[in-house]
Amino acid sequence: MATHSETARRCLDLAVAAAPAMIGRAIDQAVATLQEQEQRATSTAQRQELADAWLELSRRRGHWSQRYPALLRIAPAARAPGRGAAPSPDSDRFGGLALVDEEALACEIEAARVLQLIAPRLEQPLAELDALMSTALGLDTVHAQLNPLRPEVFAAALREVMQPVPQPAWSKLWSQHLASPLAGEIETLYRDAIRLLRAARLTEASYRVLPAAAAPARPSAPAGAAGASGSASGASGASGASGAPAAAAA
Predict the structure, then answer these.
(1) How far, in Å, are 10, 51, 71, 114, 140 from residue 161 at the CA level?
(2) Which phi and psi angles does 217 have, rounded to 5°?
(3) CA 149, 190, 85: angle at the middle one, nearest 5?
């Protein structure tokens, strides 16, 4: 019988095996959408930009289909929580802040854009997958950040496979048009992985419920203030009592 860690590895193997066809179909749909936009474009410059984008994307289809699976296999470890980049020799410049390469920053932005576009469609199957995968990893509670098939892994792999991009506008166009078909492919993969995990007779790890924060206690009034308040109340009551006979006499 396969151990829990072996079951998790089998899920990653499933994703790697499916990746060439996944990215290939996503590219085909993205190219078709870009071609439709090119036909509807009203300006020559826009038509040319769209045509160049889908032509280059089509040209890279074979290379991406080969490289994407390898990136999926190494991406979970490379992006594991707590693993940071090696310190740069220039990290002490400008008060400890290293200069950020503009190209690297642009890559991170594209990965974030892809993740933002694909995440909503994956919410339902991802919640179930996170729970089962956490059990497969030997965890009692859900640790979504340790799921080797979390959406961030697919977005990061897509970001890497895009590089280099000769025209900055292409990466944005590619991200926008690849996100929807890729999300559909990932959703299908998630359901296949869930079936694999269920077949291993795994139960879902529980989601940790954080205790509700207790309401802050009201500070008690200082003893002096309480005494003064009581004196004031007594004075007020005495005043009211002395005023009552005068009103009656009037």
Answers:
(1) 23, 20, 8, 13, 35
(2) -70, 140
(3) 10
DSSP secondary-structure letter at 193?
Answer: H
Q: Which of 186, 107, 196, 120 is nearest to 153 (CA)?
A: 186
Q: Whole-prediction pTM value?
A: 0.74
Q: Which of 106, 185, 198 is nearest to 151 (CA)?
A: 185
Q: Smallest Cα–Cα separation from 131: which of 79, 207, 187, 184?
A: 207
Helix (H) or strand (E) holding 70: helix 61-78
**Which has the higher per-residue pLDDT, 229 or 165?**
165
Give the tens place of pLDDT for each residue, 29-52: 999 999 999 999 999 999 999 999
Which pLDDT value is given to residue 140? 92
> Which position has the higher pLDDT, 113 or 138?
138
